[in-house]
Description:
It comes from Sulfitobacter sediminis. This protein has 54 residues and is mainly alpha-helical. Helix content is 65%, strand content 0%.
Amino acid sequence: MTKKPKKESQAEQSERFAKTVQDMIDAGELNPTEADKAMERVIKKIKTDSGQRE
Length: 54
């Protein structure tokens, strides 16, 4: 039988997400600085490929 998803409020979902992110940072699985740099590279590439300028 399929499990029904747990109903949670927006606040509960946000709290769970923040805790999961912090757990990943603490475990060394997520580096916010590197993630920001990677996102900037992607955005810059998309702008360059589409002919837009910064």
